Amino acid sequence: MRKKVFFSSLLIFFTCSIFSQGVAATPEYIKELTSNWKGERFEDGRPKVSDALLKRIKNIQIEEAWGYLRSKGYHNQYDGEWKILHPDQVMSGRVLTAQYMPLRPDFKEVVKVQGGKEKRDTIGGSNSWPIEILEPGDVYVADGYGRIIDGTLIGSNLGNAIYTNSQNGVIFDGGVRDVAGLLNIEGFNGWYRGDDPSYLAEQMLTSINNPIRIGRAIVLPGDVVLANQHGVIFIPSHFVAELVISSEVVGLRDLFGFQRLREKTYTPGQIDTKWTDAIKADFLKWLKEYPNAQLPMTRKELDDYLKEHYN
């Protein structure tokens, strides 16, 4: 009898622990996940990378970001082979994550009950819950495990709601419907696996702002995503500032190298290998004369970076 009481108590304890986790991750858990970030945060705990950095990162090439992250030991942040609403456009933003799984009625009921406790709308579909909490500059990133038929996470109605709240777009490892309607939402963009006229069915939301997998990439809430026609890369928030300026300096190095090659000051072999001290000195002199208005960063940011990396 005592054993039965003990195991019943244990079951209740674990059940309560599961419920206490909620549909959405707590701010405390998100802060633990992103503890390397030392800056401002949203109320939900996600790092708030500045709008200025989100704008600047759009000019960074995927390969540059990929190389930087690999140099830091982060080898699983990129994924490719997407359908894109507007492939000629670049998107960046702060990630809000959502995970979907195949529908299981008993689990769906648990999610619905917990969503009600979190004061979420339990009348409509739970796929609207992540959309309701999007902030300006967010990108809604969803793990739909690649499902397209009956896995269409949004159509034009939810697409309009997403853009209204975030002024941004989506990255879905899954499907969308009503592409024609989505294309008509000015400013909205999306990376997705495929489109289908079917509605979302036999699929359910299981969590918001928890770690998810997008293809071969791992994504945490508050990461910054850079997405273009060549793929998507998810950048840990604490790396964004250094990645941006280091990539911008690489871009300036390239401009210097192209100019000196056209002038025939150096050979391709000299520019394409480790620079000599003389070429470095020439580059630093060239940077000092470079117009401030054309720099991608402030002169102070550039000077501080050069002091640390070129002295």
UniProtKB/TrEMBL annotation:
Which coenzymes or cofactors are required?
A: a divalent metal cation; Mg(2+)
Q: Which residues form the signal peptide?
A: 1-24
Amino-acid positions noted as binding Mg(2+) in the UniProt annotation, renumbered to this chain: 178
Q: Which Pfam families match?
A: RraA-like (PF03737)
Binding-site list for substrate: 155-158, 177
Classification via InterPro entries: RraA/RraA-like, RraA/RraA-like_sf
Keywords, ordered alphabetically = Magnesium, Metal-binding, Signal
Query: In the record, what terms sit under GO molecular function?
Result: metal ion binding
Q: Which domain of life is it from?
A: Bacteria
Q: Mind telling me which SUPFAM superfamilies this protein's record contains?
A: RraA-like
- The protein depicted here goes by the name Putative 4-hydroxy-4-methyl-2-oxoglutarate aldolase
**Organism, scientific name:** Euzebyella marina
